[in-house]
Request: fold
Amino acid sequence: MPTVSVGRDRLFKALGCSYSVEEFEDLCFKFGIELDDVTTEKAIIRKEKHLDEEEQSEDEEVIYKIEVPANRYDLLCLEGLAQALRVFNGVDTIPAYKVASISKESMLKMHVKLETSEVRPFVVCAVLRGVTFDEARYNSFIDLQDRLHQNICRKRTLVAIGTHDLDTIKGPFTYEALPPTEINFVPLKQTKSFRADELMEFYKSDLKLKKFLHIIENSPVFPVIYDSERTVLSLPPIINSAHSAITLKTKNVLIECTATDLRKANIVLNTMVTMFSVYCERKFEVEPVEVIYADGKSYITPDLSLYQLVVPLSYITSIIGVSLPAHEVARLLNKMQLHARHSVAENNEASFTISAPPTRSDILHPCDVAEDVAIAYGYNEIQKVKRPSLKPQSLNQFSDLIRAEIAMVGYTEVLIWILCSYNENFTMLNRKDDKSTAAINGNPRTADFEVVRTSLMPGILKTVGHNKDHPKPIKIFEVGDVVLLDDAKDVGASNRRRLAALYCGATSGFELIHGLVDRIMEVTGTPFVSPGDKTGYYIQSSDEPEFLPGRQASIVYKGKKIGTFGIVHPQVLDNFGIPDPCSFVEIDIESFL
Amino acid sequence: MAEEAVLGYLENNEEIPDSGNFAEEKGISHDEIVNIIKSLNGFRLVDAQDIKRERWVLTLEGELYAKYGSPEVQLFQAVPPEGITREDLQKIFSSRLPNDIEDKLKSSMYKIGSTQAIKNKWIEMGKAQVSKKVPHVEDKVKDLLIRIQNGEAVGAEDIDALKKRKLISSQIWKGYSVKKGPKYAPKRKKVATDLTRENLQRGDWKEIEFKEYNFLAKGQPTEGGYLHPLLKVRRQIQMIFLQMGFEEMPTNNYVESSFWNFDALFQPQQHPARDSHDTFFLKEPSTTRSLPEDYVERVKRVHESGGYGSRGYGYDWKREEANKNLLRTHTTAVSSRMLYALAKGPFTPKSYYSIDRVFRNEAVDRTHLAEFHQIEGLICDRGLTLGHLIGVLHDFFSRLGMSKLKFKPAYNPYTEPSMEIFSYHEGLQKWVEIGNSGMFRPEMLQPMGLPEDVQVIAWGLSLERPTMILYGIDNIRDLFGHKVDLGLIKRNPICRLGI
Reply:
């Protein structure tokens, strides 16, 4: 996206209003441009030269760097930006640009020679009369040409702009294409005359101009514009002549755009003249030039006619999704510099005849009109419409992610029954039933189904007990629910999601299970902290009957105990018929959500 | 033996007041006793308190004098009552010293001896003759040194004098006083680091004393495989799309023609994105072999002169430009193929998504790579409005944890209206751009043959940017590509987007 640098104070003066940075950013955001940077001329130079920031002084002019959409050539200078924002803010009406009505006889003429078709076939021209330049306006005029050359002109390949002090030259003009050896003139910023081929050689060392030489370099003829006294105006797309150079004192300006793309040449010319006709004696009025081609066809340029298209109201509202009355749509369109004439057809369908001014070459289709209404209405005012979609169960999604992580560090998943025997849930774990935890089955068919498990431990241990012959080490895990008595629930019991893992080998693997706890914390993004710190997790020795004393610990997560790990008590191992030492961890993973 | 001595002594005594004395009494080296005390203290069988003492020891020179007497006395004794010449005195002095002392040292001892003897006014040293001034002297220095060597007390003045002559130096002696600890037992149980199968088989686990475990340190790191964070995020975003009813587009085709990548999207042939500065054009295969000709004709017309309500761009559309092959610059190239295919049959609404690689001819820096992953979603249906687009964006981004959104008008050749998506970043305390969106232009959709009242709302963003924000990575090369830090891949947490 192109960036335009404008002086803040000049911009605010042109807008007739001052803004804080935040207010101006907000205005830009709504309009669809962006305040990219706030800087000063000196700061830019300092940055280029990699100097320190120290020398900054208070009185430097503040520069706003503003990003504008790539298809809005009218926003590439302060004049156009200010105009567009004034209209958007409702402090100005859409400017009416017009071509001065002068007779064809008194009109300046540009004759196009046939040979130009070999290298750069098109030219369009216009005159700005009675322009008042000052330094700032003059710089803006030059900058706009640069930006147009960079953007729509595609580095002068498609279009090149020449501007001349009309009072130094005399029409009618000719646009010709001649062998380079036949062209001689003093180019801009030089004092001596060059032959065109020598000039090309000379510019090979010019940092700014050398990148344009390729456009005509290999052509046997070079495009050139003469006045009636064979004074060279320019050698497009390379350089203008020194003779016709515009200065701060210039009053009448001839603008010529030579091109390989006629539509873009017209857009460029229109942009130049509409932007700077604001400084003309007759504001917004432009004097035409007749361009006569070798085949006798002639065109009056610039073409400042309005581009018209008919857009149904229903189309506009169907794009935005907001129902708006016709007069409101017309008002919104005016804010975007589009004229809108409202009409109702026989079938009662309301339509607008939209007239886009020459500054709005970006309007191609009714969808562009609809967008402008949406912008003026405010994107962020549009009511959102929700389409049907599904939300996942976080607990299950999270369980699945954590299951994958545990498997990836080498543990095999097991899936155990929720029901177990009373003994397995209590006595065999060295635990006593204090009647406060377990939901008890009233009619179990066998002892296997007496209790709804309050821990994943009995299931895991039973699995090891039944896999005594499996090669060691055995590393298994389960993520599943236990049920605990819960007074807060209507039925008096609730599920809790747990993660349990076990290591069984020649040694108990206590440090390995400890390491697994660290990994679980790492994958949940929990930092390891000092005891007492509530921002992460720490480990604290514990005293639970199912684990061996001295080799067991609580896992404290954000100040809350969420699990335990330890070497399974040899008595418990014996209860489950396990001959090998085991370490085991169990964590409540709902705490991580 | 030392352990038994310490534990055994404490069984009947309150305290070992001084490990040094204790070692001496038991005839065990002090070092050995100290090691045992440290170990017992670690297991809290004993409670040891440090004792520090400053002690004087003889220097090498001091030891020499203690053995052979001070040089001044030796010199005095070498002087005969009648006196002697200096030369002869030095000869006699040296010859009386033991042979194992070097000549150089002998000569320096002579100097020291004569200086001290003169200072003590024991002798007189004339130019020619050396003679005694007193008949008899005592070797006080030697006596003092021997007393120090034996650990006997010596007066402060004498210590100072010896220190000045560098005959003694101080040494810190460390030892312990030892009492019973909280886990005192007359005999230490066997300590273990882990429970073993043998412990269970022998049943001796009840007797095992475990080494203290440090819960302030981390456990043994796990070993395994790890998935790349960017693809973990991709997985979650895929899940989000699926929950929102989107179907994945086949995007396994990096080589694309300019036609599908640009022209079909109503992107004019002079558009800057089509510069070699931005796009990788292929030398081989340089051009596409075939394009759907009737569709190409409609695309050409809409670029050149418009139609479908548009005025077009008004330039000469060139087939050669459209034929140029490139590495796709966006997955929207696939979207254009999918929509074209969709337009061929009777219309059915579709929601499509893709997350895959795209290529840009860009300089690589902290935030840019020549390749990245584009996330794209689109809905093709009748009656879609900006309200639907805003609704679906809120739905999508709130699942990514970004629920505060606002939209800025923007320009994009193939969408109109176009909206840049901004999200308020709580950490940075500002609005940041997170993606682009819009409604595909009629100039793109209608040449495909989609019905006039069908709209397509679409949005896109990179996969890298939200991932970098999520994992706090500020250099894209740390995340993606061969310069990645493998440690980062291993350390990264699970991606909880959308859950």
